[in-house]
Amino acid sequence: LRKLDISGNGISDISPLQVLRGLQSLTARDNAIFELTSVRPVLHASQLSVLSLHNNPVTKQQRYRDDIVVESRTLRELDGKEITDKEKMFLRQLAERRKVAAQKKLRSSEHRRPASLNRQPAGAGGGGYPAAAVLGRADRPPTAPRSRTAAVVHGGGWGGSRPSSRADSRSDSVPRQLEQGVRRAGSR
Questions:
Q1: How far apart are CA 138 and CA 144, in angstroms?
Q2: Which of 107, 122, 142, 188 is deepest in the core (most CB within 10 A)?
């Protein structure tokens, strides 16, 4: 069988026609073909050079003609319009460029993570944010605690960079008093 006309039969799937390997012309006008997936097997399996799908819902899909032309190696006419070698070459190159662009976009979206996901969770060696940013000093890392009390609690000091004051001597005396209380308790 080389030529087949199945127009006006309400057919929604022409993929069973893929067994007709010698088919050269298929007219399937005025049917109910909605998906390109039902057309592709026929394009790949036969020697189809003429295909007519006029008045089928599939023809209203975006890039319908482009997709059919790219899929078929033997098709010379689609819906009454000739397919030139130049058109085939152009559409195949365009399809390849789209495929490469989609792959690049996918790869770049896999490697890019939102900034919120790049922060370490609290307790993972940084509390989630750089200390300089928390202290409002993002231009340089902190060199000393913000308050004298913090310095005493963490075992650090101002190292002579700040003049001594009455508040400093009071906060300095708290650890001494604790130390003295521990000594007294141990001697009893």
A1: 14
A2: 142
- By CB atoms closer than 10 A (0-12, 13-18, 19+), residue 58 is buried
pLDDT tens track for 14-60: 999 999 999 999 999 999 999 999 999 999 888 999 999 999 999 99
CB count in 10 Å sphere of residue 142: 13
Q: 137 φ, ψ to 5°?
A: -125, 65
Nearest one of 143, 178, 137 to 159, comparing CA atoms: 143
Cα 49–Cα 53–Cα 57 angle in degrees, nearest 5: 150
Which residues partner with 3 through β-bridges? 25
